[in-house]
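ok trying again, last paste got cut off:
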Amino acid sequence: MPEVDVPEVDVPEVDVPEVDVPEVDLREVGAPHEPVPVGWPESDDDAPVPSRSARPSPLGWPVEQPAAVDLPAAADQPAAVEAPAYRPVTEPVVTPDPPVQAWPAQKPAGAGRAKRPVPSSGWRRILYAASGKLINPGESAAERRRRTLTEQVTGSTPGCYRIAVISLKGGVGKTTISVCLGAVLASTRPDRVIAVDANPDRGTLAGKVAPQTSATIRDLLEALPGIGSYADVRAFTSQTPDRLEILASAADPALSQAFGEQDYRRVVGVLEGYYNVVVTDCGTGLLHSAMAGVLDLADQLVVIATNSVDGANSASATLDWLQAHGHADLVSGSVAVINAVVPGSGRVDQERLAGHFSRRCRAVVRVPHDQYLEAGAEVELAALSRPTRDALLDLAAAVVRAIPST
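nice, full thing came through this time. structure:
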C-alpha cells in the first residue's frame, strides 16, 4: 500500500473532562452519532508509546483508548425488551383429521350371492310356500328353460310382421296351431297380434274363440273406405283371453270363394297400420287366388305336419311345391310343426321324422297330443296341459328368432 503524506496540523491538546452522559437508546433516536474528537500528536517524538490496549486507527496511527467511564443508569428508563424474532404472517395450516375407519356392516348370510328365482310349480313351490318363503330350492331345469324361452319371445316388433300357416292336407291341426301360436305371441309380447282366416273353403278360425262380433273379413272389405283408427278395425274382430284378435272368414261358401288375391292384399294393407304381427290361417288349396297374395306378402312360413306317415308326406309335398314355385327362401326359413293330432306315434320314428324336416327347415317343433285341443273347443292357453304349453312356447321362440325386434 503506498505511503500517505499527512500534513502537520497544530491541534491544541484538549483535556477531556469526565462528563456525566445519560444513556441514550440509539434505536429511539434518528440523528446520526457525532464522533468524539481525538488529539493528534505534533511529531513522532512526542507521540506516546501505544499501550497494548491501544488499537490501530484506519490509517495505522495508534489511538489511545479512553478509560472506561461508569455511567449512571438513566432514570425512569424501562429495561430494554428483546423484540421477538420475525415470523411471516401466513394462514394457519389445518391438517384434516384422518378418516374414521368404521367397521364394515355385518352382511346377512347369502347377501353376496344372486337371489334364486322363486319356483313356480311342483314340490319346490310347495316347500317354498310351506316354509313361509324362508326355504327357496330354486327353479327346476324345466322352469329355467321355460323362463329362458319366455325371455326370448318377449319383445316388440317394429312395423308389421306377417306369418303364414300352411298345409296341403286338412285335419292336421293347422287352424288350431294358428290360434295357439298367435295366443302365445299376444300374451307374451306387448304387440298387437291378429289371426286372419284366409281359407276360401269356409274356414273354422272363428270357432276357436268366443265370438264378440258376427262381422267377417268380407264386412271389413266393404268398410275399408271408412277405416281410420284401430277402434274402427276392432269393431270387426273378436278377442281371446290371451289378447289374440280374430278376423273370421265369411260363413257363406260363395262369398269365401270370391275372396281373392287383391282382397287379401287390401285387408293386410289396412291391418299393417294397427297390428305388429299378422298370422294368416291359409286354406289347403295352394293354387287358390288368395294364396298368391299370402305367399307374396309372407315374411315367414309355419308348415304343419303330423306324427303319421300320411301327414309327414303331405308336409314334405308342401315344401316341394313351394320350392318349385319360387319360394325357396321361405322354405329354408320356415318352421316345421309335427303335431300329434292323434295319441301315440304308431310305427313312425319320431326322431327320424324330425331329422327329415330339420334338413329342409330352419327349425322343427313337436307338439304333443292334447285332449283339450282334440275336442275342438275354444282355445285358451290356461286350459292346455303343461307339455303342450311348453311345446307352444318352443314354437313361438323359434318363430320370434326371425322377427326383427326393438
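cool. The domain at 156-400 is CATH 3.40.50.300 (Rossmann fold). Residues 16 and 66 are 9 Å apart (CA to CA).
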